Every structure is written in C-alpha cells, then in structure tokens.
Amino acid sequence: MTGRAPAPADALPAAVAETALGWAGVALSPEGIRHATLFHATREAALGELRAFGGSEAETSALREACARLKAYARGDLAALAAFPVDLPPGLPGASRRVLLALRDIPPGETRSYGWLAARAGLGSGAARPAGAIIGANPAPLWLPCHRVVAADGSLHGFAGGLALKRRLLEHEGALPRSLLP
C-alpha cells in the first residue's frame, strides 16, 4: 500500500487480479461485492472501471479472497464465484434487486431466457424487456452472471462487455461449444 494516495473516507476498497481470461476486479462494501468488472485486457482498464464506481485500491483479506476466486473461475472452477456475497447498492428498487439476485439461480454451464428471469424475479414472463434493462446495469457481472441470459430463441443479445465476451464466457462455462475460430 506504500506509495498510494489516501483513499477518500467513502471509497470502497478495491483490487484487480490478472487471470487466465484477462484482468478483473472488485470493490467491496463491508457486506460483499458492491461493484465488479468483467475481464479487461489491461490492469489499468479494470482498475479504472472500479475507480469510476468509487473504488480505491486496497489490500484486505476479503479482496484477496475475491481475487483468488476470480482466478479460480478463469482456470475452470465455475462454482468459485457463487458463494461470495454480493451487496447491491443501497436504494436499488425491489424489482431490480429481485432480478439481479435471480441471476444467481442460473447454474454455470446453463443459460436462461430473459422471460425466465422476469418470471423468476416475480415480474411475469411478459416482462422480458424490463428484466433485460435491469441486468444492463448489473453492478457485479460474473458474480451476478448476466452473461447466462439469452433470448428466447437462444441467440445472444445485450451484454455490457460485448457479444464476443458473452460468447467467450458461455464457451468457458460449457453452455456453448467452443468456437474453432479465434
């Protein structure tokens, strides 16, 4: 921690880790992950994303554990992220909270439709679009696995990290066959 500027009092402790899939990181509240990144090509990109959400680089045992879990997930331990707590931002409406938490009900290696997600969260299966809009603002992707949500016909739609990364994550988890092309 030497050489780092002091963090603002309201900053969330944050850390990034280099994994087999790229750089990723988390910012933690005392209750769990408040914000997380997808995989980035550089450390600076992942850390910059966390800073934009109020994260400030730190070293804690909880951050070390979260980073170890990211590395394990990238190495193929698909269950590594499931048990770590997520702390959704305060003030999040109840419907948004239910949709985001329902993402954890989708097992690794499987996908579900936006309609399934809406129904699971109590919005009704006809609320696929609102459910999609909610997960578009997912503060903890990977930990709340929005990449596992696909269109009713199985096609890939809407992902903050881009459809190529969504496909890569689903291939990594075995939900899609690995592409023969890079």
Question: What would your notes on this structure say?
Answer:
By secondary structure, this protein is an alpha/beta fold. Helix content is 33%, strand content 15%. The chain has six helices and six strands; from the N terminus they run βββαβααβααβα. The chain has a four-stranded mixed beta sheet with strand order 3-2-1-4. Strands 5-6 form a two-stranded parallel ribbon. The longest helix is centred in the middle third of the chain and has 15 residues. The chain is globular, with a radius of gyration of 16 Å. The chain starts with 11 loop residues before the first strand and ends in a 9-residue tail after the last helix. The mean pLDDT is 92.
Please compute the radius of gyration using only Cα atoms: 16 Å
Separation of the first and last Cα atoms: 38 Å
Mean pLDDT equals: 92
How would you write the strand order of the largest sheet?
3-2-1-4
Report low-confidence residues grouped into runs of 5 or more.
none
Strand content: 15-25%
Number of helices: 6
Give the helix/strand class. Answer: alpha/beta
Return the string of H and E elements.
Answer: EEEHEHHEHHEH
